Amino acid sequence: MNSHEQVMQQLGCDDLNELVDRKFLQEFGLVMPEQYGMVCQNVKEQIANLEALGAGPFLYANMKMPNWKECGKLEEAYAEISLGYSNGQQIELLGEGKNIDIYRENIPADGSLALHHVCVFQEDIPELARRLNNAGYPTAGSGHIGVKGLYTTTVRYIDTRETLGIYIEMVEYKMLGRHTPPGEKIITGIAKLQKRFAKS
Question: Which of 21, 61, 89, 91 is 20 to 30 A distant from 50 in Cα terms?
Fold first, then answer.
Protein backbone atom coordinates (compact mmCIF):
# COMPACT_ATOMS: atom_id res chain seq x y z
CA MET A 1 0.00 0.00 0.00
CA ASN A 2 1.52 3.35 -1.05
CA SER A 3 1.32 6.57 0.98
CA HIS A 4 -1.70 7.97 -0.90
CA GLU A 5 -3.60 4.73 -0.37
CA GLN A 6 -2.79 4.97 3.34
CA VAL A 7 -4.03 8.57 3.37
CA MET A 8 -7.25 7.50 1.69
CA GLN A 9 -7.69 4.77 4.26
CA GLN A 10 -7.31 7.39 6.99
CA LEU A 11 -9.91 9.61 5.29
CA GLY A 12 -12.24 6.64 5.04
CA CYS A 13 -13.86 7.57 1.73
CA ASP A 14 -13.73 6.81 -1.97
CA ASP A 15 -11.38 8.60 -4.35
CA LEU A 16 -12.33 12.20 -5.12
CA ASN A 17 -13.01 11.36 -8.76
CA GLU A 18 -15.67 8.84 -7.73
CA LEU A 19 -17.56 10.73 -5.04
CA VAL A 20 -19.99 12.64 -7.28
CA ASP A 21 -21.78 11.26 -10.31
CA ARG A 22 -20.53 13.09 -13.41
CA LYS A 23 -24.08 13.36 -14.76
CA PHE A 24 -24.98 15.39 -11.66
CA LEU A 25 -22.03 17.72 -12.24
CA GLN A 26 -22.90 18.16 -15.91
CA GLU A 27 -26.58 18.80 -15.14
CA PHE A 28 -25.74 21.81 -13.00
CA GLY A 29 -22.64 23.04 -14.82
CA LEU A 30 -20.22 22.05 -12.06
CA VAL A 31 -16.56 21.22 -12.63
CA MET A 32 -14.88 18.15 -11.17
CA PRO A 33 -14.34 18.42 -7.39
CA GLU A 34 -10.81 19.25 -6.26
CA GLN A 35 -11.12 18.92 -2.49
CA TYR A 36 -12.12 16.43 0.19
CA GLY A 37 -13.86 18.40 2.97
CA MET A 38 -13.36 16.44 6.20
CA VAL A 39 -14.70 17.23 9.69
CA CYS A 40 -13.14 16.03 12.94
CA GLN A 41 -12.93 16.73 16.67
CA ASN A 42 -9.19 17.42 16.75
CA VAL A 43 -7.76 19.09 13.64
CA LYS A 44 -4.15 19.21 14.87
CA GLU A 45 -4.19 15.52 15.74
CA GLN A 46 -5.49 14.64 12.28
CA ILE A 47 -2.83 16.85 10.67
CA ALA A 48 -0.17 14.84 12.49
CA ASN A 49 -1.78 11.55 11.45
CA LEU A 50 -2.01 12.50 7.77
CA GLU A 51 1.48 14.05 7.59
CA ALA A 52 2.91 10.86 9.13
CA LEU A 53 1.36 8.98 6.20
CA GLY A 54 2.99 11.29 3.65
CA ALA A 55 0.30 13.92 3.02
CA GLY A 56 0.85 17.66 3.36
CA PRO A 57 2.41 19.67 4.84
CA PHE A 58 -0.81 21.21 6.10
CA LEU A 59 -1.54 24.91 6.48
CA TYR A 60 -3.46 25.62 9.71
CA ALA A 61 -5.65 28.56 10.71
CA ASN A 62 -8.29 29.66 13.19
CA MET A 63 -10.03 32.36 11.23
CA LYS A 64 -13.01 34.67 11.43
CA MET A 65 -15.71 34.05 8.84
CA PRO A 66 -17.22 37.49 8.24
CA ASN A 67 -20.62 37.60 6.56
CA TRP A 68 -21.30 33.95 7.41
CA LYS A 69 -24.97 33.10 6.93
CA GLU A 70 -26.55 29.83 7.95
CA CYS A 71 -30.29 29.03 7.79
CA GLY A 72 -30.83 32.61 6.62
CA LYS A 73 -29.27 34.04 9.79
CA LEU A 74 -26.10 36.15 9.79
CA GLU A 75 -23.65 34.84 12.40
CA GLU A 76 -20.35 35.92 13.92
CA ALA A 77 -18.53 32.76 12.97
CA TYR A 78 -15.04 31.34 13.30
CA ALA A 79 -13.59 28.33 11.49
CA GLU A 80 -10.73 26.01 12.45
CA ILE A 81 -9.35 24.96 9.10
CA SER A 82 -6.35 23.16 7.63
CA LEU A 83 -5.37 22.55 4.01
CA GLY A 84 -2.90 20.09 2.55
CA TYR A 85 -2.46 17.74 -0.40
CA SER A 86 -2.05 14.08 -1.21
CA ASN A 87 -1.34 12.93 -4.76
CA GLY A 88 -2.37 16.34 -6.11
CA GLN A 89 -5.75 16.28 -4.34
CA GLN A 90 -6.60 18.90 -1.74
CA ILE A 91 -7.67 17.81 1.74
CA GLU A 92 -9.47 20.26 4.00
CA LEU A 93 -9.77 19.49 7.72
CA LEU A 94 -12.45 21.35 9.66
CA GLY A 95 -13.03 21.48 13.39
CA GLU A 96 -16.12 22.58 15.28
CA GLY A 97 -15.35 26.30 14.99
CA LYS A 98 -17.97 28.71 16.30
CA ASN A 99 -21.50 29.24 14.98
CA ILE A 100 -21.00 26.92 12.02
CA ASP A 101 -23.52 24.21 12.75
CA ILE A 102 -23.12 22.39 9.46
CA TYR A 103 -19.60 21.39 10.59
CA ARG A 104 -20.35 20.72 14.27
CA GLU A 105 -23.40 18.55 13.62
CA ASN A 106 -21.41 16.18 11.38
CA ILE A 107 -18.29 15.64 13.50
CA PRO A 108 -17.90 11.97 14.55
CA ALA A 109 -18.00 11.38 18.30
CA ASP A 110 -15.28 8.70 18.09
CA GLY A 111 -12.53 11.15 17.05
CA SER A 112 -12.30 9.90 13.46
CA LEU A 113 -12.56 11.85 10.22
CA ALA A 114 -15.82 12.10 8.28
CA LEU A 115 -16.38 13.29 4.73
CA HIS A 116 -18.57 16.40 4.95
CA HIS A 117 -18.37 17.82 1.42
CA VAL A 118 -16.50 17.96 -1.82
CA CYS A 119 -15.46 21.35 -3.14
CA VAL A 120 -15.55 22.77 -6.65
CA PHE A 121 -13.57 25.90 -7.54
CA GLN A 122 -15.38 27.93 -10.16
CA GLU A 123 -16.97 31.21 -11.16
CA ASP A 124 -20.62 32.34 -11.28
CA ILE A 125 -21.51 30.90 -7.87
CA PRO A 126 -24.80 32.87 -7.54
CA GLU A 127 -26.05 31.42 -10.84
CA LEU A 128 -24.90 27.89 -9.98
CA ALA A 129 -26.54 28.15 -6.56
CA ARG A 130 -29.77 29.36 -8.18
CA ARG A 131 -29.86 26.30 -10.45
CA LEU A 132 -29.28 23.95 -7.55
CA ASN A 133 -31.78 25.73 -5.28
CA ASN A 134 -34.44 25.59 -8.01
CA ALA A 135 -33.85 21.85 -8.32
CA GLY A 136 -34.55 21.37 -4.60
CA TYR A 137 -31.03 21.62 -3.16
CA PRO A 138 -31.04 24.45 -0.59
CA THR A 139 -28.13 26.65 0.41
CA ALA A 140 -26.97 25.47 3.84
CA GLY A 141 -24.33 28.14 4.47
CA SER A 142 -22.62 31.01 2.70
CA GLY A 143 -20.02 33.67 3.25
CA HIS A 144 -17.46 35.93 1.64
CA ILE A 145 -14.26 37.60 2.72
CA GLY A 146 -11.75 39.97 1.15
CA VAL A 147 -11.54 43.46 -0.31
CA LYS A 148 -13.82 44.09 -3.28
CA GLY A 149 -11.86 44.68 -6.49
CA LEU A 150 -8.65 43.27 -5.01
CA TYR A 151 -9.08 39.76 -3.61
CA THR A 152 -12.29 38.06 -2.54
CA THR A 153 -13.37 34.55 -1.64
CA THR A 154 -17.02 33.57 -1.97
CA VAL A 155 -18.31 30.32 -0.43
CA ARG A 156 -21.63 28.47 -0.76
CA TYR A 157 -22.54 25.13 0.77
CA ILE A 158 -25.37 23.34 -1.02
CA ASP A 159 -27.25 20.58 0.78
CA THR A 160 -27.07 17.71 -1.69
CA ARG A 161 -27.05 15.03 1.01
CA GLU A 162 -30.32 13.46 -0.07
CA THR A 163 -28.86 12.65 -3.49
CA LEU A 164 -25.09 12.49 -2.91
CA GLY A 165 -24.81 11.77 0.82
CA ILE A 166 -22.62 14.87 1.27
CA TYR A 167 -22.71 18.63 0.77
CA ILE A 168 -21.22 20.36 -2.25
CA GLU A 169 -19.13 23.43 -1.48
CA MET A 170 -18.58 25.99 -4.23
CA VAL A 171 -15.72 28.46 -3.86
CA GLU A 172 -14.82 31.37 -6.11
CA TYR A 173 -11.46 33.08 -5.61
CA LYS A 174 -11.08 36.41 -7.35
CA MET A 175 -7.91 38.44 -7.63
CA LEU A 176 -8.21 41.75 -9.47
CA GLY A 177 -11.45 40.50 -11.02
CA ARG A 178 -10.07 37.15 -12.22
CA HIS A 179 -10.91 33.72 -10.79
CA THR A 180 -7.57 32.62 -9.32
CA PRO A 181 -7.72 29.64 -6.94
CA PRO A 182 -4.51 29.14 -4.94
CA GLY A 183 -2.82 25.94 -6.10
CA GLU A 184 -0.82 23.24 -4.38
CA LYS A 185 2.49 25.11 -4.61
CA ILE A 186 1.08 28.16 -2.85
CA ILE A 187 -0.70 26.19 -0.09
CA THR A 188 2.32 23.94 0.47
CA GLY A 189 4.73 26.88 0.44
CA ILE A 190 2.76 28.78 3.08
CA ALA A 191 2.44 25.60 5.18
CA LYS A 192 6.22 25.09 5.12
CA LEU A 193 6.81 28.70 6.17
CA GLN A 194 4.26 28.38 8.95
CA LYS A 195 5.97 25.27 10.31
CA ARG A 196 9.40 26.88 10.06
CA PHE A 197 8.33 29.93 12.04
CA ALA A 198 6.50 27.76 14.58
CA LYS A 199 9.80 26.01 15.37
CA SER A 200 11.82 29.24 15.71
Answer: 21
